[in-house]
Amino acid sequence: MFLKVIGGILVLISSCVLGVYYSFKAEYRINDLLEIKKALLLLISEIEFNLSPIAEATKNISLKVKKPVCDIFSKFSERLGYGNCSAGELWKLILEEKSQNTYFEKEDIENFISFGQTLGYLDKQQQSNNIEITVNYIDNKISELSEKSKKNKRMFRSLGFLGGFIIMVILF
Residue 44 domain-assigned? Predict the structure, then answer.
């Protein structure tokens, strides 16, 4: 009987923790989106005002943003001069590799990959416009996620508690 009580309490606690995790998942994604937005805005300034090449610009950006976004930009700048693939192909490879450490979803990755396909091919103004399009996507996604997060935060916490409570009742 004592083991059942301990097991039930552990199930209840773990389901509550799981509910709290899912309630904050949208906020983690918002933080990652804000960080890549910061990186893209820095990229605009590097391109327009410093006239830096892509490799140097992305290296500078990787020093100014937080993880996991800094990993994407630092790995991109390291591998840009090596190999025989284009900047867009390399951007796609790095994003697919490093996105496992982020909270980006598939649609975010696809949008960032489409942005990366034009890296190094366009002139300064077109590159800035392309970055602005990606920043607008990020802004729209952040506002959408903020509204959704407010609605779902309490629901996930409640579902975590109620799910654990139901499992605990079934065990007894």
Answer: yes
